[in-house]
């Protein structure tokens, strides 16, 4: 358990350093939903190359780390309920774009500049997430 | 130059998400599960990530991005219904599966078919979001 917290802190600092490089280098907020969403709805067409490079690096780096380590293959332990997976994906896609941010943009980048919008968004998605887990895990037993 | 910064930022973000355990949906749902076996790891990840970002925002003062251009404008103080509704929808989706946009990309290589279905659903949601946001605006503030 304690190892998890330490790894969480180390991994968290790496995430923050990524945001630092993206901000001080390119002058952009490192928000995953914004970087992906701009490619999907076309609003980020002029910066498509750097968005795609960023996403490719996000996807490939864990693969490199897995290849370098001799631990067993990593897993997400995602639910096998297809309905839940699809509903979850749709809600995350719609919600992050309507709310203009996710855990990285509103959470990490927003809170660190004391943005009221980032703080309020984070409070709402954590409350909604907590209630959803309470309802679907403990009341309904679906997840 | 912009591509290089995007590559470094993406690599740090991907490594951080993976090493911190945020690509493990059990840890994310465990953090949201306050009525169950609560897992505080995510708070350490968030805290760790915010530290370098506080420094990053300090360093933007009186400077320009290294690759040119401008830093993001100060956060808009207005909250608005889009921020709240979007964040609640995102939180619900996040709670259902334990995945958010960043980890969904970071786990492409080992998340299996379920991860890809989540990703496809998320992209469809992002594609539909602008239209849904307009509908939301009309519902909240009828013309």
Characterization of the model:
The complex is a heterodimer of chains A (143) and B (143). With 143 residues, chain A is mainly alpha-helical. Chain A is 74% helix and 0% strand. Chain A is built from six helices and no strands. Chain A is globular, with a radius of gyration of 17 Å. Chain B is mainly alpha-helical and 143 residues long. In chain B, helix 2 (25-32) packs across helix 4. Chain B starts with a helix and ends with a helix. The relative contact order of chain B is 0.11. Chains A and B meet through helix 1, helix 2, helix 3, helix 4 and helix 5 of A and helix 1, helix 2, helix 3, helix 4 and helix 5 of B.
Provide tags for this entry.
heterodimer; A: about 140 residues; mainly alpha; about 75% helix; about 0% strand; B: about 140 residues; 6 helices; about 70% helix; globular
Q: Briefly, what is this?
A:
The complex is a heterodimer of chains A (143) and B (143). With 143 residues, chain A is mostly helical.
What's the end-to-end separation of chain A, in Å? 23 Å
Shape of chain A: globular
Quaternary state reads: heterodimer
Largest sheet of chain A: none
Helix-strand makeup class of chain B:
mainly alpha
Radius of gyration of chain A: 17 Å
Give the overall average pLDDT of chain A. Answer: 96
Radius of gyration of chain B, in angstroms, nearest whole number? 18 Å
Q: How many strands of chain B?
A: 0
